[in-house]
Design brief:
- Two copies of one chain form a homodimer.
- Chain A contains 13 helices and twelve strands.
- Chain A is elongated, with a radius of gyration of 26 Å.
- At the A-B interface, helix 4, helix 5, strand 2, helix 6 and helix 11 of A face helix 4, helix 5, strand 2, helix 6 and helix 11 of B.
- Chain A binds a DNA duplex through helix 2 and helix 4.
Chain lengths: ~325, ~325
DNA sequence: GTGAAAGCGCTAACAC
DNA sequence: GTGTTAGCGCTTTCAC
């Protein structure tokens, strides 16, 4: 059996109320009493049971972060930002939703069952209607990835604008045969859709005809990048520049080019998305769009905690500035 | 105000006990009543408050996993294993300790304040004495990384044996000038110590003199791998094989070799540790020791949950089999 | 400055 | 099969 506030009170010869006051500094307690209570707490090894406290206070001081999976450096940076901003006010708990709607919903249940006070989602399969219903009753924020049609608080970069700018820069550098590597319809994320829209806009605005055979859709991982290179670069009229919606795809694309004797960046320029640590380790180093992950995390946490404190929920999208990190794979 | 079990009871015209029974299936309830209660629950959008439940039941069905940081694919795989094994019985919460003793201790406080039922640590800065004191009162397991002198339940590979075997294989392949790249004293982890011990043992057992100038100590990341290559490979009598205690170091080492015109694996063979996804993306692909991360996670969760159920804590170390994944950077 | 007591939402023992 | 009630550990009025 663990030691409770009652045990401390009895042992210290005071009431539980006094122990609670010492614990929380919620009201004046004489110095002698406080000292005595502290001594007893230490001697008994007492640690307050947060279930009792939270039940009574109607708050847990926990914020849940739901990620698709744990091992992605983008998420890692965002979480660090959330953590640093929340610092001592809240504990940050991370859970993996594995891009599964049911799992994500089960995790969001931690809001309704009062395990956490707020939730941040970094990419999700939940639909706008379900999420908005929850967001009306609980503190929820989306970070880095939106949900189409949702009015939930969202912190992200303007993906369309970023893709638009990269393609514009390719064109300014004299390229006209520009390809785009993305995911297919089964795993489409709003960010991908936006990036594709930016790509298309730039081509159109620059009077370059969109070529279906230059748009490769499959999955977002390394292997698909390899396949993309094999298929795109073996065409009779291959692209001279490629924008990939993830750095993993870009890395795979470069690898795929190596396989078939195509040189990067000489024969084809490659740009990724996200600026994960791999970009600097790869040969050639990968040019990419960087999301200000850490700042996105901080901003999200700040907005959420402000809502928590004021009781006023906030909605809508806040865009943060992206960057274009020029490395070896594309000089744009 | 959120709706409670009382509201449901009143609305359904039954007692709170009956609602609780319907919720938990803990006792027989007539079909009519159950149906009625379910209807009211749905209509009111009731969700049980776990704080009340957990307080009463003295359990939370949450397991905490403390990682040094979030974005490491080894941790990701271990956590997936833990998750799958715990499946519906427990929710897995992940928190980052950032290799900071104080942060880790604060997180372990979730055991004492009854926020979680058990904790898994994947590498920690907490000392044996402090941890063992906690492990005597709570369910704690270490996974992949031990604490020297601790008797806490630990699931890991035999790091010494693995390093020993790699070096043996280098020697069998005719190499005698074998280097070792590891971390320095400020960030030493037991796994690193064990791997160094295996390296030294193999040399000694094979009657090869240990050369201090072949042991490079700094940090465990990519940049240090580059530095290691620059310093080790520019010696007058450079090594012809290198074992690095992380894949990141191995990748950096290869990059560093490229910088100065040393060919891998022709001039020097390189082996890493952990088998992270980077190994297959790198050129050349990296030979490495693989930890059975997913199985380690499952085993850890199983052992922990068994303890939780039986109330019998378990202690000691369980070794799982490692593998040596031969790729391009070393043909051993 | 301190104590008594109510009550947060829930489960389970007991009674019927 | 169902209701009444005690109590999990804590905070917070309200008295004094």
């Amino acid at each position: 059996m663990s030691v409770t506030i009652k045990d401390v009170a009895r042992e210290a010869g005071v009431s539980v109320a006094t122990v609670s006051r010492v614990l929380n500094g919620s009201a004046a307690v004489s110095e002698d009493t406080a000292e005595n209570v502290h001594e007893v707490i230490a001697r008994l090894g007492y640690s307050p049971n947060f279930l009792g406290r939270n039940l009574r206070k109607r708050e847990t001081r926990n914020i849940l972060v739901i990620v698709p999976y744990i091992g992605h450096s983008l998420y890692s940076d965002i979480i660090k930002g959330i953590q640093d901003e929340a610092s001592n006010e809240y504990d940050i708990l991370v859970a993996a939703g594995y891009s599964t709607r049911d799992t994500e919903l089960r995790l969001l249940g931690m809001l309704t069952n009062h395990t956490v006070d707020a939730a941040v989602m970094l990419g999700t399969r939940v639909d706008a209607q379900t999420l908005d219903a929850l967001a009306d009753r609980y503190n929820i924020a989306l970070c880095s990835e939106s949900i189409e049609g949702s009015h939930a608080l969202t912190i992200m970069i303007d993906n369309k604008k970023a893709a638009y700018e990269v393609v514009n820069r390719f064109i300014a550098a004299g390229k006209t045969r520009i390809a785009f590597v993305t995911t297919d319809e089964t795993i489409i994320a709003p960010s991908s859709t936006d990036r594709l829209a930016g790509y298309l806009s730039s081509l159109t605005d620059n009077h370059i005809k969109v070529r279906e055979e230059y748009i490769f859709k499959r999955n977002y991982d390394y292997t698909c990048g390899i396949q993309a290179a094999h298929e795109l670069m073996r065409q009779s009229d291959p692209p001279e520049a490629v924008l990939c919606i993830s750095d993993l795809l870009a890395a795979g694309f470069i690898k795929g080019c190596n396989d078939i004797g195509v040189k990067v960046p000489k024969d084809v320029q490659v740009c990724g998305f996200d600026n994960i640590s791999l970009c600097e380790m790869f040969t050639p180093m990968i040019t990419t769009v960087s999301q200000p992950a850490y700042r996105m995390g901080r901003t999200t946490a700040r907005r959420l905690i402000d809502s928590l404190k004021t009781g006023m929920r906030s909605y809508g999208t806040e865009y943060l500035e992206y960057g274009i990190i020029v490395r070896e794979s594309a000089s744009i």
